[in-house]
## 1
Amino acid sequence: MVARDSIWIAFLIAVLNDLEVLATDIGNTYINADVHEKLYFVAGDEFGNVNKGKNVIITKALYGLKSSGATWRAHLAEALHGLGYKSTLADPDVRICPEVKP
């Protein structure tokens, strides 16, 4: 979650330098990130009689896991870094991509 003050500062810098601003809200975020721990649970009735009582391995971050937020944040940071975006010193959740204007 980006701080409100960071957004205001980013918009101010963009306006003063005639920069394009891109923003997004990502839905269903956690299902994109792989978990880094070994997590499992025992399947209940909702998994059917064939699977009931078997161990189920969790491979994707799920809402409700304590580590899911950090896992998703690391996954997003890695993806944005691969696209050339870098964290700002003021707020690591605000990212910029150097670009040359014509």
## 2
Amino acid sequence: MTAIYKVTKNEISLLSTLATQTIIESHGHSAPAEDMNAYIAEKYTEAVFKDELSNPKNIYYFIYHNGELAGFSKIVFDCPYEGSLQNVTKLDRIYILKKFYDQKLGQQLFQFNVDLAKENKQAGMWLYVWKENPRAVRFYEKNGFKVIGSHDFQVSPRHSNPNHQMLLLF
């Protein structure tokens, strides 16, 4: 059984721990360990998540499978990228723990976020995805996203990862 719940301020520690584990599993090999560790130490702390959750524009959800925490997402409504439509949602993060990859939980969490965006009168959804993550690129393409640009994601002052910018119109 799968359940999706909005993350509360009381769950910041759990969010920080889960986010750290999922970023290491999915991107830990994308940069030198020193750079990844510094990035995580700066961007995945409880203080950062507390600040993000205090802003109502940042919407986080947990997904559970058979009572076990399996992943999370973050969306931001009305977050246009440069030169884009108004009323578009940024899918800022969607991560599933590796042990749940074959359970279709990413699809369920993704569809939940799409439905939420549509309910909030959004015209579409955009995101960045690491070009060297073919599993994720295929996932988004299968769900109707089109590559519309590129973006260098700064992991550290000396390392960046090439990303596709992708868009899905509703």
## 3
Amino acid sequence: MVSEYYRMLYRHRGEEEARLFINNIISLLKLPPGSTILDCGCGRGRHSIYLAEKGLEVTGIDICGEKY
């Protein structure tokens, strides 16, 4: 079960917000395709999924243990 606080905190965040954030990070860090990334606290994986779509090798971990 997902906490009500999780839903409150992330209800306004979606795929478009995640893509904009990741595009900015990739540009700022000049990450080439194939770079290895660790996404700590990945939650539902919005950022991890998009990083992989951009050609990066991603491992996502999260402590919550929830299944989405």
